[in-house]
Design brief:
The structure holds two protein chains of two kinds. Chain A has nine helices and 16 strands. By secondary structure, chain A is α/β, with parallel strands linked by helices. Chain A has a five-stranded parallel sheet with strand order 4-3-5-6-7, with helices on both faces. In chain A, strands 9-8-10-11 form a four-stranded parallel sheet, with helices on one face. A three-stranded antiparallel sheet of chain A has the order 12-15-16, with helices on one face. The longest helix of chain A is centred in the C-terminal third of the chain and has 20 residues. The N terminus of chain A is likely disordered. Chain B is mainly β. Chain B has one domain: YVTN repeat-like/Quinoprotein amine dehydrogenase (Methylamine Dehydrogenase, Chain H, 7 Propeller), CATH 2.130.10.10. In chain B, strands 3-2-1-28 form a four-stranded antiparallel sheet, with no helix packed on it. The relative contact order of chain B is 0.13. Classes of the chains: A alpha/beta, B mainly beta. At the A-B interface, strand 1, strand 2, helix 1, helix 7 and helix 8 of A face strand 15 and strand 19 of B.
Chain lengths: ~400, ~325
Amino acid sequence: MIRWLVAAIGLSVVATPVFAADTIEIGIGYIGHAGVKAKLSLVEQPSENDGVAGARLAIEDNNTTGKFLNQHFTMEEIRIKDGDDVVKAATALAGRNSFIVADLPADELLKAADALRERGTVLFNAGAIDDRLRESDCRANVIHVAPTRSMLADALAQYLVWKQWKRWLLVAGSHDRDKLYADALRRAAARFGAKIVQERTFEDTGGARRTDSGVTLIQRQMPVFTQAAPAYDILVAADESEVFAAYLPYRTWDPRPVAGSAGLVPTSWDAAQDQWGAVQMQNRFVKLNSRHMTALDMQAWTAVRMLGEATSRTASGNPKTVFAFLKGPDFSVAAFKGQRLTLRDWNFQLRQPILLVDGRMVVSVSPQEGFLHQVSELDTLGVDRPESKCKLHQ
Amino acid sequence: MQRSYMIYVMAASLAATTPAAAFKAYVSNEKSNTVSVIDTDSWTVIKTIKVGQRPRGIEFTRDGKFVLVAVGDDDKIEVIDTATQQVVDSLPSGPDPELFTQDAAGNILYVANENDNTVTVIDLQKRVRLGDIQVGVEPEGMAISPDGKILINTSETTNMAHFIDTATRQIVANVLVDSRPRFAEFKRDGSELWVSSEIGGTVSVIDPVKHTVTGKITFEIPGLRREAIQPVGIGMTKDGKTAFIALGPANRIAVVDGASHAVTKYLLVGQRVWHMAFTPEEKYLLVTNGVSNDVSVIDVAAQKVIKTIQVGELPWGITMAPP
């Protein structure tokens, strides 16, 4: 209960002379796709530099710290087009940088990770939320900063159950990732005691996102689509493909709130987040980029800050030393979430609170009070150690 | 159970106390944009003063004539005249001032500007800005060494205590501490500097001459998860024998032996405890509880909470009138 630790270990006694000899250079690569996918809402349309803008802010933050420690961070960005060889691009990037922040789809991330394993390059997955990357397809050289679908679904489910909105009408899109999100929502409902009263699929029949005729048609479609549902408390939509969810609020047949891919949305970050000192960070971001900070920006910022944290604690830019510290028990990072963030040692997933946002405000933050766990309440979100299929050290 | 026990203790210790000399404590209420004035004789709020947006850091001037309060969202420090209990002037800080400290003579004010990675130096008599010092990301905690030669600033995202020479205004050393360092406090004899790390969950004890961390104080409270223990404000008795550390959302004050650095007791206070101030004779310690909107009064000798006073919304900082 009472403990007094004499800090004999070298790294906690780092006193830094102001002028030291050589500056340690730490190169970080950023790889993502060129171009952005269209969103239903114009205000949510991502910027071309979505993600990398957060990484660049963290490079600035790391360099402010680095000037006191003689560490200097640089960032090299590569954008690939559809059909480009991801292995070639990632290998070129790894030739000049010890660490890579990746915003890649799951299969491309795995290809890059496997190609770079031998040379010891560590990848930070800032973009892919697929659970399988942390489960059956986990890799020993990939750290996951992005939350998983199951973490997002659990965060939402905890709040809806706390709110006593336990009867869900689940509407899923027809694309693969919509189905994966629907799977995560079904799992969350079962875990936390919600009931899916009915499921419906919204088929993507193609067509333009924006038309001159506007909302007239949508206003007729959505009520009809949600007609004749069994009694439910909330409509939960799984539409990562951006086909229909944003059209649902205020248009359901029954007057019910919407959550999931529209309405109340679980996310790692939001421009409205202002708790726990986040205002300073939001201000720095807006000043640098003249736009608001997105979840992808925050995930990339956190990846680069994790590296900054590890290099300052170890006084090293050596990839092996830095990676060992990141994987070790002493690592934690502060990321304006009200508590320290640590890595799950069985699959290198960053534990993190999840925000529930409505597009204007942060409505709540999960884990919700009362969802207990023997190790960390953050492990009530997502796939926990006993259920994990990840075998990192085989 | 624990609560009802506390009420017993409270009644017993209240009966035993003789009337103390009356002092005035000023409390900044972050949400209500006010400062509450507490009379330590009646233990009541005797005045509520309207101030600017988001008041946090608060301190009496050395002569006791004014109270300075950082109003972060207005990017300035307001000056409250204690005679009229009104805001009479403001000082030019940088953007989003949070905590500040002044030299022993009360001539120079050093302000941490969270938004700008700078510490602003202000002439308190002329009320003008003398210059800025570049520090780490999100400067917060401020302290000045008892001999006045070294200014300490902690930066929350850089995770350092910066040692600044007050004569040259240059950084002379940087000491790495645990995540999100928020508050710095010297022992009166200058032998130790204590820095609290809110997210790291520790208090680093630093040798101010060698610029090394000589030890870390850690906290363990049965039934509370580690993440909920977030040290912020620190108060030390003048003799350096006892320290009190506010543990934020752990809703407790840790009592720490100044010599051995061992935690000897945890005092249950209100929710989200931030900062604290002693009455001048060190008979009482007043602590601000952010979420429960009150101030807890601790009997320093008995190490017991004896009273709770309702103040404004989200009380944050507190300062006590000099005797």
